[in-house]
Design a protein that fits this description.
Blueprint: H1 4-18, E1 20-21, E2 25-29, E3 31-32, E4 41-42, H2 44-56, E5 60-61, H3 64-72, E6 77-78, E7 81-87, H4 91-104, E8 109-112, H5 114-118, H6 127-135, E9 139-142, H7 159-181, E10 187-189, H8 197-205, E11 209-211, E12 230-231, H9 239-246, E13 249-250, E14 253-257, E15 271-276, E16 287-290, E17 293-295, E18 298-299, E19 306-310, E20 318-327, E21 334-343
Parallel strand pairs: 2-7, 2-12, 3-4, 5-7, 7-8, 8-9, 10-11, 13-21
Antiparallel strand pairs: 1-6, 14-15, 15-19, 16-17, 16-20, 18-19, 20-21
Length: 352
């Protein structure tokens, strides 16, 4: 006959396995301030509300490097695991966000564009402030040297020259971060979320994990040269939206066409084709959206595993997204996938 302690241990083990997961949500913030551009800001009150929700509703806030390590090596994560990241090394991270993070004992990552810190721009953090946060568990990662539009190529610029230039930018920033903070995490956030296949291949060869700004949770099928994050700013930081997003699951996309985000000027209404793996999602309730409209889903096979979506509107210069969601079997959580589009101007420039 089993002892009570043995039974309890088995129940705890089974419970832990039941709640083990292979996914996480990564949140992306910029400013935490009442006085910065609304589109890239949350107020301190909003940010505290976000953190309190995570604390009060059973979420595990984990350091981003640990999350990436576990997903890549197929180690289990607690369900409802979240990472908190900040881009651009703004001073409000130290003044407003850092005290709240310490209050909750939450780890976080700052993606630093090193020129801003090195040159002492007025709204940028200092290395002293960054190292103070490192001592409290912050991770300092790479956002390039100058935060430029890396997808832009000078007129007549050879592809290899362009790739060598980006390689140097990323390598230089990583070296500075290592020298100043002792960290060498090889995690790179694409400025503006912009990248193309040759650049993604480049950072893969350099041994970096890449992070974009397309929405959605991270899962085992995610592209580790451009992992999704949920941007938190303006209307996207509203509490009802936040609650939906931190509870999402990764829609299991096993293949997509095109692989690039870049829009061909001769085809400004591109077709996105996605192939799904099996999962707990309700396929009949799959819905896709883009450019402010619901997109018709065109299934290409009887099993309904591959589909196409297309907007009737032309994609304008700038950045946009197609988002697809499906509820889980309980109807309480959503599976989510986002594909971002990038259309350059006629001069080959990306818009801020």
């Amino acid at each position: 006959m089993l002892r009570l302690s043995t039974i309890l241990s088995l129940l705890l083990l089974l419970s832990a396995r039941a709640f083990a997961a292979d996914h996480a949500v990564i949140l992306q913030y910029h400013h935490v301030s009442d006085n910065t551009p609304r589109s890239t800001s949350v107020t301190p009150a909003q940010f505290e509300e976000h953190l309190s929700y995570l604390r009060d509703n059973g979420f595990t806030v984990m350091a981003l490097p640990e999350i990436i390590k576990r997903i890549r090596t197929h180690q289990a994560l607690p369900d409802r695991t979240v990472a908190i990241t900040f881009d651009d090394a703004y001073i409000s991270i130290y003044r407003e966000a850092f005290p709240l993070m310490k209050k909750h004992s939450y780890p976080f990552t700052i993606f630093v564009n090193t020129d801003a810190v090195e040159r002492g721009y007025g709204d940028a953090l200092s290395w002293q402030q960054l190292n103070e946060m490192v001592e409290s568990g912050a991770s300092i990662a790479n956002h390039g040297v100058s935060h430029g539009h890396l997808v832009e190529r000078a007129k007549g610029e050879d592809e290899q020259v362009w790739l060598n230039k980006i390689h140097k930018d990323i390598e230089t920033a990583e070296k500075i971060i290592n020298e100043k903070t002792g960290q060498d995490l090889k995690m790179f956030a694409w400025p503006y979320g912009e990248t193309v296949p040759p650049l993604r291949q480049l950072i893969g060869q350099m041994g970096f994990v890449g992070f974009g700004q397309q929405s959605g949770p991270v899962g085992a099928l995610s592209d580790f040269t451009k992992l999704p994050r949920f941007p938190m700013g303006g209307a996207y930081a509203a509490m009802d939206s936040f609650i939906t997003k931190v509870n999402t699951l990764p829609l299991p996309v096993s293949g997509k066409t095109p692989d690039s985000s870049l829009i061909d000027e001769n085809n400004t209404t591109p077709v996105l084709q996605l192939t799904l793996a099996g999962g707990d999602y309700q396929k009949k309730l799959l819905a896709c959206y883009g450019l402010g409209e619901s997109l018709k889903i065109n299934w290409l096979d009887a099993e309904k595993m591959t589909f196409q979506i297309q907007s009737e509107k032309a994609i304008l210069p700038g950045r946009s997204r197609f988002n697809c969601t499906a509820p889980d079997q309980s109807g309480r959580r959503y599976y989510w996938y986002s594909h971002d589009w990038l259309r350059l101007t006629s001069e080959g420039k990306a818009l801020d």
